[in-house]
């Protein structure tokens, strides 16, 4: 089984928000989690959660949709334990079975290049990377 769904944000732990912008409700989950888990658990199945790497705010500034953590009040539509592939215009990464360190590194690799250094600094502060990483400068 193959499933393809869109999402609004993903954090560096691999948690996916497809329903809200912080406390602002955008939409319901529909059957996203059912399809994600069905593909995740099926023999040879793949689940793809897709999002652009950034969005432009009303004031014209751009923000990354791959974030250190989800904003307060965000709904976790797909838990990190069920996430398989995350896709942006910078590629696709397979998070299935990966630890927190690996998830953060993979997600940063498909974030918009303008935000990668900021995300690296965030994971250092969060204690996800306690030792040297090939992405650290």
Description:
The protein is α/β, with parallel strands linked by helices. It has 3 helices and 11 strands, in the order E-E-E-E-E-H-E-E-E-E-E-E-H-H. The strands form 4 sheets. The chain has a 4-stranded mixed β-sheet with strand order 1-6-10-11. A hairpin with a 2-residue loop joins strand 10 and strand 11. Helix 2 runs antiparallel to helix 3. The mean pLDDT is 91.
> What is the averaged pLDDT score?
91
User: How many strand units?
Assistant: 11
Report Rg: 15 Å
Helix tally? 3
Q: Which class best fits the helix and strand makeup? A: alpha/beta
- N-C termini distance: 40 Å
Q: Largest sheet at a glance? A: 4 strands, mixed
Beta-strand residue fraction: 25-35%
Order of helices and strands: EEEEEHEEEEEEHH
Oligomer: single chain
Overall morphology: globular
Q: Unreliable stretches, pLDDT < 50, 5 or more residues?
A: none
Helical percentage: 10-25%
Order of strands in the sheet with the most strands?
1-6-10-11
């Amino acid at each position: 089984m193959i499933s393809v769904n869109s999402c609004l944000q993903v954090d560096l732990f691999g948690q996916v928000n497809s329903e809200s912008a912080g406390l602002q409700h955008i939409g319901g989950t529909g059957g996203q989690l059912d399809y994600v888990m069905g593909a995740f658990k099926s023999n040879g199945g793949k689940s793809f959660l897709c999002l652009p790497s950034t969005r432009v705010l009303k004031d014209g500034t751009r923000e990354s949709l791959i974030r250190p953590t989800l904003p307060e009040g965000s709904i976790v539509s797909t838990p990190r334990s069920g996430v398989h592939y995350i896709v942006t215009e910078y590629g696709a990464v397979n998070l299935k079975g990966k630890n927190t360190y690996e998830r953060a590194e993979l997600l940063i690799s498909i974030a918009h290049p303008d935000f990668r250094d900021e995300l690296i600094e965030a994971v250092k502060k969060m204690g996800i990377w306690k030792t040297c990483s090939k992405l650290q400068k």
